[in-house]
Design goal:
By secondary structure, the protein is an alpha/beta fold. Helix content is about 30%, strand content about 15%. The protein has a single domain, classed as 3-Layer(aba) Sandwich (Rossmann fold), CATH 3.40.50.
């Protein structure tokens, strides 16, 4: 399999320039009366084992922000948000549609995968520079993270990867070696 080039972030100089810590948000309190982008966390966040000097960036969604906020100041960025899509949480088949999407299926009203990867990549590159050598932690969402990782490191089975993500989850992404490993 030919692997895509790593993002520009992987080629920047600096002691911590080879990896990014991706955090999938903790369990949200599902409330179908509001859009998922507004869901809060269901409870407290367990220790995530993040380096003490981390630069923390997160999606603007409360569930992502709330997952890393207990560990220091957080810079929010909408580029780390979940994919935009037609509402699907309240009907049957939502999980199957999401799985098909991360595996390459197009759905009407869903953000193009290439747009998700481009905005996420831009966010990583921007915050990489701002982190100035500190470990970069990005709190985000399962589908967006899976699409970015598929493009950047060449996940062999994006659907299986997405299905295996935990709430929360911490992943060490080596952009040079093009690997991802669970930290929790």
């Amino acid at each position: 399999m030919t692997r895509p080039d790593p993002s520009a972030a992987a080629r920047l100089p600096g002691a911590a320039a080879d990896f990014v810590l991706l955090v999938r948000h903790a369990m949200p309190a599902v409330d179908l009366s509001v859009p998922p982008q507004e869901w809060e966390l269901e409870g407290s966040v367990p220790p995530l084992g993040l380096p003490a000097d981390s630069y923390l960036a997160a999606s603007t969604e409360p569930k992502a922000l709330g997952t890393v906020a207990p560990f220091g100041p957080v810079v929010t960025d909408p580029r780390f948000g979940e994919i935009t899509r037609a509402a699907d949480e309240s009907d049957e088949g939502w999980r199957e549609r999401r799985l098909a999407y991360v595996e390459g299926a197009d759905h009407p009203g869903w953000e193009p995968r290439s747009a998700v990867v481009a905005r996420f990549d831009d966010g990583v590159n921007d915050h990489w520079v701002r982190a100035a050598g500190r470990p970069l932690v990005v709190a985000s969402h399962g589908m967006a993270m899976t699409l970015w990782l598929t493009a950047r490191i060449g996940l062999d089975a994006p659907g299986a990867f997405w299905s295996s993500l935990r709430l929360p989850d911490v992943l060490v992404v080596d952009l040079v070696a093009r690997t991802v490993a669970r930290r929790l």
